[in-house]
Amino acid sequence: MRTLPQLFENNRQWAETITKNQPDFFPTLSRQQSPNLLWIGCSDSRVPANEIVGLLPGELFVHRNVANLVVPSDMNGLSVIQYAVDVLKVRHIIVCGHYGCGGVRAAMEAPRHGLIDNWLGHIRALYHRQREELACIAEEKARVDRLCEINVMEQVKNTGNTTIVQDAWQRRQPLVIHGWMYSISNGLLKDLGLSIASSEELEESRDRGK
Ligand code: CO
User: Fold this and answer.
1) Which of 3, 19, 75, 124, CA to CA, is 20 to 30 A from 173?
2) For residue 100, how far is its CA from the centre of ligand 1 (angstroms)?
3) 102: CA distance to ligand 1 center in Å?
4) Is the pLDDT of residue 165 over 90?
5) Which domains occur in the chain, in start order?
6) pLDDT over 70 percentage in the chain
7) For 54-70, b where at least 16 C-beta lie within 10 A, e where not — what string?
8) Rounded to whole angstroms, how far apart are CA atoms 71 and 89?
């Protein structure tokens, strides 16, 4: 089939339901967006940002890529962060990873996945740095899950180290970066407990080696 009629039917029903509950929802939204939150998550189809946290259109600014990476040379990711921080003035940036991430798992394997290995190289470097800690975990699945967590913590730091966030903190703009994990098997979020709200806190987290 060349077209996807079911999706248009779903869409029509979705818009109708929202409009029924709140007739001015779309007209109001069309005039502006003022989300408080930036979500940086994985592209995985099982981790849909808005649904997980129960937020409607207009409430969450979203960037997703394979394995939720924040890479200082990635213009796409940086542009999203800049727009969110400088223009929308979001108060929170949530880096949300998930257990069993295929990108993280692939980075732990021999590099034979094609183009994507260039992207996953960022996690592979992290894997090698944390090899000793990870080697103590006997079960493979648990090893992958631990690297998923370590990856989120690393991306929180990468976000904090961007010139965009550093400048925001310097001008005293309120901005907290969070590291969360999502469990595909039960649908629940977990806070990794490293909410960072200033350059000083970022330094402290580095000292703790977290
Ligand atoms: Co993933």
Assistant:
1) 75
2) 7
3) 5
4) yes
5) 1-32 (no CATH), 34-208 (3.40.1050.10)
6) 99
7) ebeebebbbbbbbbbbb
8) 21
